[in-house]
Amino acid sequence: MKNVKRIVSYILIGLVLIFTIIAILGIWGLIDIDLQKIMLNTLYSLLVVFAASAVILFIFTVMIRDEEKKTQG
């Protein structure tokens, strides 16, 4: 479980760095992008990922943990 947390942490750090670099390059005009549209789509995407992870966490906490307690006790 620790390895999964470490891998996910590194992936999230990498995504933050990539989005930061894209935003900075867009602000300085080095790349021609519609920064407002990209940032809005990024926020919507993060919202969807957050909602999905909350549902998965709920399922894991309620269903799987309860099954583990029943088998142990």
Descriptive account of the structure:
The chain is mainly α and 73 residues long. It has 2 domains: 1-33; 34-73. Helix content is 88%, strand content 0%. The chain contains 2 helices and no strands. The model has no long low-confidence stretch (mean pLDDT 78).
Query: What portion of the residues fall into strands of 2 or more residues?
Result: under 5%
Please indicate the count of domains: 2
Rg = 18 Å
Order of helices and strands: HH
In one word, what is the shape? elongated
Secondary-structure content class: mainly alpha
Give the gist of this structure.
The protein has helices at 2-27, 35-72. By secondary structure, it is mostly helical.
What descriptive keywords fit this protein?
2 domains, mainly alpha, single chain, 2 helices, 73 residues
Helices and strands in order, then pairings?
Elements: H1 2-27, H2 35-72
